[in-house]
């Protein structure tokens, strides 16, 4: 059974009465997608958002409400012709006639919107949310006969953020002037960005390796967020807060800033207190750490060095 839900404006939906469809199980969702593919759509871009809550301490209604609050904020960031389905604590954003490049662009847009959204909500509104993850893939019309299998396999995460969440510390996409990017306007019918960084796919690695699980466990033990992947574009004001030499020496990289708090990515939390203290002395700012995989940090350091070289 599918239930169409009108999102109230206070939940962040478009004032025009944007809707999502709440489905009872994967079979119903597969039937909805098959109907789209057999109605003349060549392919579907699919972005899957998974929310994880701690245990069963809070009533299910509280977790369901937290899910609605987060997913409702995303509806105005996609086209009116796009579809949003909710199943349990998972949201499925369906993009008709969208290729993989466009799908990945939308995934990135929704990811940063989610990061901003969880940072703006109070703890009681998040209902013991411990992690959010985003992934997805493109579904071709030829796959319409095995959509149930596709949906079961598509839940692997490309991007993961773990608690604790804070609006002053979560990274945000921004322009070169250092201004935080606001919510994007709903794109036109086919207005998906066409240009993406080359070889982008190799940076988006599913969170399935044993090493990634160890990093998640370490982040929970230290009480700091886990973030992957790191933002590809960082404002000059953030990059210049730490010299490339110091960043390489301490093996850390600045990725965001809000007032007097600088967000810094680390790949090794074993000595993070000493690193944070050194950064506080050098910058005069409060330092908030996030843990990230070593390959993500290495790529961020390379981008930092490249940007510094261009300034010269």
Automatic annotation (TrEMBL):
It comes from Thermogemmatispora argillosa. SUPFAM superfamilies: EspE N-terminal domain-like. Residues 188-204 have a biased composition (Basic and acidic residues). Residues 173-183 have a biased composition (Low complexity). Residues 170-206 are annotated as: Disordered. Residues 222-306 form the Type II secretion system protein GspE N-terminal domain. This is Type II secretion system protein GspE N-terminal domain-containing protein. InterPro entries: T2SS_E_N_sf, T2SS_GspE_N. Coiled coil: none annotated. It comes from the Bacteria.
């Amino acid at each position: 059974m599918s239930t169409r839900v009108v999102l109230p404006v206070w939940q962040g939906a478009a004032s025009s009465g944007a809707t999502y469809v709440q489905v009872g199980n994967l079979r119903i969702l597969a039937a909805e997608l098959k109907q789209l593919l057999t109605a003349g759509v060549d392919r579907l871009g699919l972005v899957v958002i998974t929310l994880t809550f701690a245990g069963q301490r809070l009533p299910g209604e509280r977790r369901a409400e937290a899910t609605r609050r987060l997913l409702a904020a995303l509806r105005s960031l996609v086209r009116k012709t796009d579809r949003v389905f909710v199943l349990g604590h998972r949201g499925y954003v369906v993009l008709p006639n969208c290729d993989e490049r466009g799908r990945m662009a939308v995934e990135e847009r929704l990811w940063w919107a989610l990061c901003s959204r969880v940072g703006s909500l109070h703890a009681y509104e998040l209902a013991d949310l411990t992690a959010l993850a985003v992934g997805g893939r493109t579904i071709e019309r030829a796959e319409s006969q095995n959509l149930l299998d596709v949906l079961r396999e598509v839940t692997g995460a490309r991007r993961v953020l773990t608690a604790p969440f804070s609006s002053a510390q979560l990274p945000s996409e921004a322009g070169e002037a250092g201004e935080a990017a606001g919510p994007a306007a709903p794109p036109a019918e086919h207005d998906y960005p066409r240009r993406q960084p080359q070889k982008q796919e190799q940076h988006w690695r599913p969170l399935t390796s044993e090493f990634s699980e160890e990093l998640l466990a370490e982040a929970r033990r230290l009480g700091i967020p886990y973030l992957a992947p790191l933002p590809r574009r960082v404002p000059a004001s953030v990059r210049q807060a730490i010299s490339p030499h110091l960043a390489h020496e301490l093996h850390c990289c600045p990725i965001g800033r809000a007032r007097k708090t600088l967000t810094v990515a680390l790949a090794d939390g074993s000595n993070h207190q000493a690193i944070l203290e050194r950064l506080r002395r050098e910058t005069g700012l409060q330092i908030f750490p996030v843990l990230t995989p070593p390959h993500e940090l290495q790529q961020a350091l390379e981008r930092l060095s490249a940007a510094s070289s261009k300034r010269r």
